[in-house]
Structures are given as C-alpha cells and as structure tokens.
C-alpha cells in the first residue's frame, strides 16, 4: 500500500487528535518523512494545538524589519493615540484638536478620517528605501484601535477605499514588498476599539460646552445631509454599550488591556465581525506575518476568535507553501504561549538569550507622527537603532522598527537621514546580523549588569546604562564568531574577556581575525584573561558598532 493511501486509511480508523499528536512528535509516521500536506499538522484553535508551532527559518534569519505604523491618526501630526486623546478633556491632543478642527462634539475622529488624503504616498519608494537600509521584512498597519480598515473589506465599510484617501493602503504596500523581494506583514490593533474609544462617549465637564456629548454615540440617522450620509459611525466607534468601570480614569485602559479589571466585555457580534475582517485580510493579502497589539491573542480570554485566526493563518500558510512560513506576534506571553507564537516586547529588550525567537518593536519617535519630534530633532539616532539591533540579535531576537509617516504619506528629512545611516552600517556589517544565531553568552560589559526589568508589554527602553566600547555582543554563523563592539574603542587594542582560554567558551583554534570594513587581518594575543585584538592604526569611521570576525 502506498504511504499516502496508508495515511488516509489510518485517518479513518485512528482518532484525529491522536494522529495529529503522533505526526507532531516529529513530522513523520512509520519512521519516514511525509511529503506535501501530510508532512505538517493541521492546527486547531487551541493553545495545546498551537504549541506545535515552529518558527520559520526566514524569520529567524531576517533579524530586522521596518514598520509603517501609518493611518488617519497621523493626519493631525500630534502623536500616538490621537483618536482617543482628542476626547480627553484638558489633554494636549484635546486642546490641539479644538484649535485645529473644533470641538469634538462637532468635529470628531470620523471627520479627521475625511481630512486624510495620503496624496504624497509612494509605497514603492519607501519599501525600496527600507530594503536598501537592510530590512528583511516590512510590516504595514492594517487597522489601529481607531477601527478604520486600511484595506478593501466587505465587513467594515469604514475603510480606506471608501473614505479618506480612497486607496487600498495594504494592497499598495503588499505590491511594493513583492516587487522588492521583501517578506510582507501587517499589524492588527482593532480588537480594542470597544474599550479604547470609550472616551468618545464623554462630554466636557467644564466651560461653554459642558454636558454636550462628543460624537461617539452618533448613529447613521444623524448623518442626513452630512458628508458621511449613509455610513453608521457606530461601525467605526463601536460605542453602543455601557462604559467600563472607572472609564473616566484615562490610565485604566492599560489595566484592562487583557479584558479584565471591570472592562466592558465585547459582544459576540463584535468579536465575530473582528474575526471575519481579520481572516479576510489574511486571505486577500497573504501576509507572512501578523502583528497583534494584544495580550496573547485578540479577545483572549473572553473569546476564542484569536485562537481561530491563528490556526487559520498557520493552516493557510501550510496549504500555500507546503510547510509553515507564517509568523504571529503577541505581547505579555507566558512560557507556554511563547511556544505558540512570537513574543513581542514593546519598546524594550530581554536581558538574556531567549530559548525561542522573539521580537522587539520600537519607533524612531511617536508611533503616530508627531511634528514636534521633527521640529525638536528628537528622533532616535542611527547609533541607537544599530546598538539596539545588535543587542537584540545577540539574544535570539529580531528588531521591528517603526519609521513614523506624515499624514500625506511621506517621511521627514531627519528620519531619512537615520534610515540611510542604518543602511550604510548594514552594507558593511550585515553578515554579523542576517542568518546569525546566538553564541554561548550574549555579551559582556557594564550594560550586562543590573538590567532594567520589563514592565507589562516591555517598556525598559532607555532605562539601562548607555553602551560603551567595553560593551560587546556576540553572534555566530557556522564556525565564525562575531564580536560586536558597541562604541568606538579609545585604545588601539581591545580585550574580549569572554574569549579567555580560562573561560572555556571558545572551543576551537583561532585561524584569523578581521575587522569588517577593513582590509587585512588583525594581530591578536590569546591568553587566559581574554583575547586581545590589535585594532587598525587608522581612525575608525563610526561610533555605532564595530564587528570583529573571528574565524
């Protein structure tokens, strides 16, 4: 009997869950590998089933991605979470909104969407720029907590083809990514609209407009004669429900992020609509990566729609490729959940080599464009980004970097300079990054001591000691070890203590030592206290990070 026929026969007489577990144990039955769709286990919408996940090699090798966290909230150019902050009386964004647009009872976020035209957006140019800068994957915002879909959706009328720019934003990004040969991903944030937009239900407590409700409760019938006639704002705001407990506390949203602590729980209809929108996104645009801005998975633990989406994406990937290529990221994962997907740390880094691949996501400035950051020249520098990348990669992680975009679809000159400087460094040193794996220890130096702990999603960025030339990180690729110096050495020799003969980490003989970007080999002395490398006499050209290649 042929193996394929035998497997089909087994499937009819052996319980499906038993056969799935048997296959999962090693992707084989009867002691031999199985071809095609029989080589992998179909995933079911449960944490136990998702534990069969294996991180695809493309993602482990990629190391660096760039993210366009761009949508209608970038139009005002006043920073992150604008669509929520504009309804918080007395806040900076509330005051700015009144000055620029008017009172939020008359000009709400739906009206900001109508202002957004994205008239200078050039996805081909931007993705090409990011590819040149060294990004191996690109992620586009598909929707944010503002609930506006940036793609063609038959389940959400409030989308970028019908309103605002009247363009398929995700489709444009996907086309550009394919052209430039870069893996494509999307980020999905709309699960939290239900509670996040509750500020739109409020009204002023003070002043001439006290007691006048903001526009968060308006409905389709209120649109007669207005630009949004025929559209129901409740499909956008989703506020036809009681407020969460302590909703007037602006910080409460963070404590309720995991759908606990008195949050208003979404209805089944809301959950099902989110499920349909997200599956449609995955099926139509075929992203290799989906970034979820959720604790674990969307709606968990009040609904299993996140589990259903994850299993659908994994199974869809197997069907498309013959093996699992999909990546899903989530936040605040426990040890078991990290076996099911990629752990994302927001604006923070782990302090050790993690056993499974993980990701840091961070931003050059504010997640949504803030013109003040540009005006005051407060972006992260290329040095900061490169040193973060090196530290993350040495600990088995990837870095996803957001480059904020103006409402019109462009990046500013300060950001362009940073991106180009990253690309210049990558051109010389990328071999120590792409396709590398962690070494026995991630590094040495002052920054490895007393690292700042993670808080909630992460948020230990900038809380550790600044890197110096005494801080070294390690990566490896086959028999080659890379020692990456996080700064510009002040002396003409460098002592790498972790490579001392007495440490026992370096188990093979050193054949040669090179400095990437410098022609020729370097002299060295290898003793019990460490490896002393003699650096070139000529001035080193940057103070970002230098790569010593040890063969």
Q: What features would you highlight for this structure?
A:
single chain, 551 residues, alpha/beta, 8-stranded parallel β-barrel, 5-stranded antiparallel β-sheet, 17 helices
Describe this structure in words.
- This protein has 551 residues and is of the alpha/beta class.
- 28% of the residues lie in helices and 17% in strands.
- It is built from 17 helices and 18 strands.
- It has helices at residues 3-13, 16-24, 47-50, 57-62, 82-85, 92-100, 109-115, 123-132, 169-179, 193-196, 234-237, 252-255, 268-285, 305-321, 371-375, 382-394, 413-429, and strands at 28-29, 32-33, 64-68, 137-143, 183-188, 289-295, 327-331, 342-346, 358-363, 397-402, 437-444, 472-477, 480-485, 493-496, 513-515, 524-527, 530-534, 546-550.
- The strands form 4 sheets. An 8-stranded parallel barrel has the order 3-4-5-6-7-8-9-10, surrounded by 4 helices. Strands 11-12-13-18-15 form a 5-stranded antiparallel sheet, with helices on one face.
- Helix 8 (123-132) crosses helix 9 (169-179), helix 13 packs parallel to helix 14 (305-321) and helix 16 (382-394) packs across helix 17.
- The longest helix has 18 residues, at 268-285.
- The protein is elongated, with a radius of gyration of 25 Å.
- The protein starts with a helix and ends with a strand.
